């Protein structure tokens, strides 16, 4: 999943980037408010970590412009502004969550996981479909309780499908979330990864809806 980090402090950015990449996310970043607004308005990020004190355009202004344009991507505000009234302003502007600095990266990751689950209508940190389970905290996939080794791209693709369980996800949407910025989005590569996942997890796990995309759903209850 692609995450946009909007942060102007190099040390904080480095800490967040390392933690997010270690957790399996694709990370893109900017320290400029105008650039952040443009990226969030034109790219399908899974979520945004947004600082408020930015050059070019204040973080709240960026967020308000996204929401006014109908962009509903999940946004977690990370800021040194600790006054309660500013927190209220951030939530009222359309933020999904708010975490003051200094913070622990473990909490950032936990809140991000929660945002992504809610965006996909999920509640548990373990995403499941029949005998398949993906633990978003441990980045661990099991089938009938047996661990299954997946490559980073296979893991990201499976994670996207499970976060949207019950909904069809197009090849283009999947490519957007598994390939980083600057790399050509290859829908044929998505087909290859789907084939690998079917070999590892079972041919019937991922349904193909021709002309639309792919779907993971819970097996029908007899």
UniProtKB/TrEMBL annotation:
Which keywords has UniProt assigned to this entry? DNA-binding, Phosphoprotein, Transcription, Transcription regulation, Two-component regulatory system
Instruction: Fetch the InterPro entries from UniProt.
Output: CheY-like_superfamily, OmpR/PhoB-type_DNA-bd, Sig_transdc_resp-reg_receiver, WalR-like, WH-like_DNA-bd_sf
Q: Name one GO cellular component term.
A: protein-DNA complex
Pfam families assigned = Response_reg, Trans_reg_C
- Response regulatory domain spans which residues? 2-116
GO BP: any one term = regulation of DNA-templated transcription
Segments traversing the membrane: none
- CDD domains the record matches: trans_reg_C
Please give the Gene Ontology molecular function terms for this protein: phosphorelay response regulator activity; transcription cis-regulatory region binding
- DNA-binding region per Swiss-Prot/TrEMBL record: 124-218
Q: Which residues carry this modification: 4-aspartylphosphate?
A: 51
The OmpR/PhoB-type domain extends over 124-218
- Protein name per Swiss-Prot or TrEMBL: DNA-binding response regulator
State the organism named in the record: Candidatus Thiodictyon syntrophicum
């Amino acid at each position: 999943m692609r995450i946009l980090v909007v942060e102007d402090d190099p040390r904080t950015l480095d800490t967040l980037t390392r933690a997010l990449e270690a957790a399996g996310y694709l990370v893109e970043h900017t320290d400029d408010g105008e650039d952040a607004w443009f990226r969030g308005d034109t790219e399908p990020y899974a979520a945004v970590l947004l600082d408020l004190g930015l050059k070019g355009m204040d973080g709240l202004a960026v967020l308000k412009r996204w929401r006014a344009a109908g962009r509903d991507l999940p946004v977690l505000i990370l800021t040194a502004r600790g006054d309660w009234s500013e927190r209220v302003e951030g939530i009222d502007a359309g933020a999904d969550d708010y975490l003051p600095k200094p913070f622990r990266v473990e909490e950032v990751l936990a809140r991000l996981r929660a945002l992504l689950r809610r965006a996909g209508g999920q509640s548990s940190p373990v995403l499941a479909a029949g005998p398949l389970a993906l633990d978003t905290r441990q980045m661990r996939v099991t089938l009938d309780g047996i661990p299954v080794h997946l490559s980073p791209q296979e893991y990201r693709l499976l994670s996207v499908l499970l976060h949207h369980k019950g909904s069809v996800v197009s090849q283009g949407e999947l490519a957007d979330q598994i390939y980083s910025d600057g790399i050509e989005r290859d829908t044929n590569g998505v087909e290859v990864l789907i084939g690998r996942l079917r070999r590892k997890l079972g041919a019937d796990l991922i349904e193909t809806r021709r002309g639309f995309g792919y779907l993971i759903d819970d097996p029908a209850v007899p």
